[in-house]
Design a protein that fits this description.
By secondary structure, the chain is of the alpha/beta class. It has helices at about 15-25, 50-60, 90-105, 120-125, 135-140, 170-175, and strands at about 30-35, 65, 110, 145-150, 150-155, 155-160, 180, 190-195, 200-205, 230-235, 235-240. It has one domain (about 30-240): Purple Acid Phosphatase, chain A, domain 2 (4-Layer Sandwich), CATH 3.60.21.10. The strands form two sheets. The chain has a six-stranded mixed beta sheet, with helices on one face. The termini are far apart.
Length: about 250
């Protein structure tokens, strides 16, 4: 048996043309952020998680941002709640069980806290309960490696839920910083603003809700929700990905 020459480099086929361009594109060290739109668990659309995982793989993403409203908290909403809906304990338990699947798929992620996520904290504040009595999102939801923030910046792009900052196009123009936001379930767009020395964008990423659920009753009969997610490459290339509802039934 011939001994292997340890000094001899392993043979690797040369890439050229379009194949090399594709290889370079997908192996380039840059932020490739998957932006997951408002899931509102446990009222997320069936198939939305699979769609997000497929998008992550398709664009070779290496970072994940949930744009907010990870949970719905319908039982404690400031608006009217369905008297025939689940109670507080049952809804939260179901939300936690569904979030376990998200956490398994994306064990490292940043969540920009949305208005629905903050409901319980707001009510505790109104009730005069000090923070020391309140558990963190990580503790309640069982997601120790997820980071919950008001907003976050990656490659100069701001990621924020949008309920306080305003619509993506408005916030981008006002603050002169590229902005990605959710909150407005029917908004799904990329709008560019060009100046003499730079260009910035506003991107609205829609949502991942099941509009037929009782928690979304306020939407039924109104404008159609935009179901999809977003990808931002290197802080300069925003991409919207519409969910094929028939494919992910």
């Amino acid at each position: 048996m011939k001994k292997k020459n340890k000094n001899k480099k392993d043979f690797r086929p040369r890439l050229n043309g379009q194949r090399k361009a594709m290889f370079d594109h997908f192996t380039k060290e840059e932020s490739r952020v998957l932006v997951i739109s408002d899931p509102h668990e446990p009222f997320c659309l069936d198939g939305y998680l699979k769609f997000c995982k497929d998008t992550y793989n398709q664009y070779n993403c290496n970072k994940v941002v949930f744009i907010g409203d990870l949970i719905d908290s319908h039982y404690s909403s400031y608006h009217e709640t369905d008297p025939d809906g689940m109670g507080a304990g049952m809804e939260l338990e179901l939300a936690i069980n569904k979030i376990k699947k998200w956490y398994k798929a994306f064990p490292e992620a940043t969540i920009t806290v949305g208005n629905h996520d903050r409901i319980i904290m707001r009510k505790a504040f109104s009730g005069g309960i000090p923070k020391i009595w309140i558990k963190s999102f990580q503790e309640v939801l069982g997601t120790p490696n997820w980071e919950f923030v008001t907003d976050t910046y990656i490659d100069g792009v701001r990621y924020v839920h949008g309920d306080k900052s305003g619509k993506a196009r408005t916030a981008a123009k006002r603050d002169m910083v590229s902005t990605v936001s959710g909150h407005f379930h029917t908004d799904f767009y990329i709008e560019w603003l060009f100046g003499k020395t730079r260009a910035i964008f506003g991107m609205a990423v829609g949502c991942g809700i099941d509009s037929k659920s009782y928690a979304m009753g306020y939407m039924q009969g109104g404008k159609k929700e935009a179901v999809g997610c977003g990808v931002v490459i290197g802080g300069t290339q925003p991409i919207l990905v519409k969910m094929d509802l028939e494919k992910y039934k």
